[in-house]
Structures are given as structure tokens and as C-alpha cells.
What does this fold into?
Amino acid sequence: MRPCQAAFISRRMDSVRWAFRSGSWQPTCCEWLLAARCVQAEERQRIGTFVFARDAKAAMSGRLLIRKLIAEKLKIPWNEIQLQRTTKGKPFLANPVLNVIPNFNFNISHQGDYTVLAAEPILQVGVDVMKTDFPGSSSVAEFFRIMNRQFTDHEWNAISMAGDEWAQLDMFYRHWALKESFLKAVGVGVGFNLQRIEFHASPLHLQEGQVFKETVMFLDGDQEETWVFEETMLDDNHHVAVALGKPDTDGKYPVQAQENISQEPFQFTLLTFKDLISSAITMAPEDPKCWENFQAKQEKASRQHRMPV
It folds into this structure.
């Protein structure tokens, strides 16, 4: 890649951090029908199959975030964006623009009250959001016993030394978000031994409105100096971790990658529904059945904590 192309990427597609309160979103009939018209047919059908409204809202907002990103940052008209899924279900952009920007990378996550998106023009990126909450079907001690094999001794020590049960859960979910962000960045799924990665979290206490990148990761006992982790709190009990790693580019633009990974961390911008569809172009006629289907859904399952998987 020539220097002018790298400069083009830097100008054309800056790093992005967006968040949307999908959990508290109470769409009107007009909003939901409009949203349904702005996603691909297969995604509209997939969203309709969710049992709970909370999951449908998270999925819908995730698709809108992705299309907004591509329309505004890569300048592809909304109705021309071609999204497909990998065999593992991860969405990716199928448009030929990737021949020009081969390492354009985005990732989404939804859990608790938020759907979040992180995107990078060059770096590998993974994002995960986790809400701190008490387990609904067991004690904290039993919950930790079940999850014992997911963390190293060092990490469990950090969790157990955090303070009372709530503080321990908070540190637990902070570590879980970090691990998930890395796995999502490298595209590893079920079957990866989570004890191979160990995080040394710093600072011990995160503050809402600030982004920290002091936490370091060890892989198989060795510190991974090429990976940076941005951590922030969206509110009092929602952790977000963004994993940033240099891409495998065969030396095409190592200087630009280093500059991107060393830059100041990005704050998440909280978007409204109006923001989500500000660049939208409808792709289908209005279908009242989409609203009827959504209205028939229960908001969420009865009190039962979702264990990480």
C-alpha cells in the first residue's frame, strides 16, 4: 500500500466508538416499522424469530449501527450495503470497497442495556459490553464456583480482593469483557481455553466518562505488548472493553498501525434512534406484520441471569 493510500484510509475512516441504549428503547410503531425497512430481508426475518423483545431490539440496533457506520464512513449508500455472515455468524461487509481498504474492521456487542460498536480502519478490533448484576438462580459463591475454570489464579485473586460481593461481581464482569473483546478481535470461538489469556487489570477502579488503557494481557504466560485494551464504564454497571491489535498485513503499513494503536483512546458516543437512521435509505415497503410480531413479544425472560458463554 502506498503512503497516499494509507493517508486516504486515515482521512476516510477514523476510529469509531458508538453505543445505543437498546434495553431502554421503547420503539413506537412508526420507529419499528421504519427500522425494519432499513435492514436486509434475511435480517428482518431473523430479528422476527427472537422470543424476547429485548433481544430483537438489540439485534435491530446492531444492524442499524453497522449500516450507519458503513454508509457514513465508507460512503456506500445505505441501500447498496451488502452484509453477510461468516460461518460463525459474524457480520462482514461484502462490498468490493474492501479491495481498497482491506483491513477495515468492525465489531458489535450487546448485553444488559446497551448495544455497542467499535470500528478501526487498520487495526484488529473486538468489543464486548457486560452488565454487572447479581446471578438470579444461584448465590455469588456458587456462580463463581461454576465459572472457576474461565479465569487464572491471578485473575481470581483480583476478583476476590475487590471488596464485597457486588465489587467482586463488578471485577468479574470487567475481566469477562476483556477476555471476550480479545476473542472477538481474533475470531476465536467456543473451545478456546480462557485460562491461556490472563489480564492484569489497571487501574483497579474505572470511572464513568474516562477511558483507560493500562490493563495488560498475558498469552500463555508471555506479555502481549502488541495488544492494547481500552476500558470504560458506560454507566455505573456497564463495562466496555475494546481490544486493539496490529493486523497481519505482511509489512504493508506497520508505521500507520503503530500510530493508530498508540493514539489516545476514544470515548463512546451515545446515539439516539434518530442518530441511528440519520443516513438510512429504506429497502422494503412497510409491513404491519413486523410491528404485530414485535408487540407480541415479552420484553425479557423472568429474573434469570445470563451466564457468559
